[in-house]
């Protein structure tokens, strides 16, 4: 199963709630649906709101709620208290650390996180040089998923 298919499977499962943090915009929320509960919609909206001023918005086409991104930490706690676990899908960027001594190296021995990928390649403009011995850059945005359980 590829990564995109795995994320779709997690997003569509009905065992645990899912919080989807995007790079910008509102937080998307999926809560397990209880087919025999005729009041599920109203109860879920009230529960998600938890006394806050903003009313969660329902998107029928995608079967998810949208709430302010600033609710993220409270939503995780709320989901853990109610369901014992929550999936969090969110963007991340991998950080690479390298240094001038690696880029300008003449031998093959490399001790930094690039694992030799930048070794002896000369300086590249995309690196943020903090000092003579430390430079960093961020990779492309990818999507990660983790299951947070109440014991964490």
Write structural notes for this entry.
With 152 residues, the chain is an alpha+beta fold. The chain has two domains: 3-92 and 142-149; 93-141, no CATH class. 24% of the residues lie in helices and 32% in strands. It is built from four helices and seven strands; from the N terminus they run H-E-E-H-E-E-H-E-H-E-E. The chain has a seven-stranded mixed beta sheet, sandwiched between helices. A hairpin with a 6-residue loop joins strand 1 and strand 2. The protein is elongated.
Mean pLDDT reading: 83
Helix coverage percent: 10-25%
Structural class: alpha+beta
Termini distance?
27 Å
Topology:
Elements: H1 3-12, E1 18-20, E2 27-30, H2 40-49, E3 57-59, E4 64-67, H3 72-83, E5 85-98, H4 100-103, E6 128-131, E7 134-149
Parallel strand pairs: 1-5
Antiparallel strand pairs: 1-2, 2-4, 3-4, 5-7, 6-7
Spell out the key features of this protein.
152 residues; 7-stranded mixed sheet; 2 domains; 4 helices; single chain; alpha+beta
What would a concise description of this structure say?
With 152 residues, the chain is an alpha+beta fold. It folds into two domains: 3-92 and 142-149; 93-141, no CATH class. It is built from four helices and seven strands, in the order H-E-E-H-E-E-H-E-H-E-E.
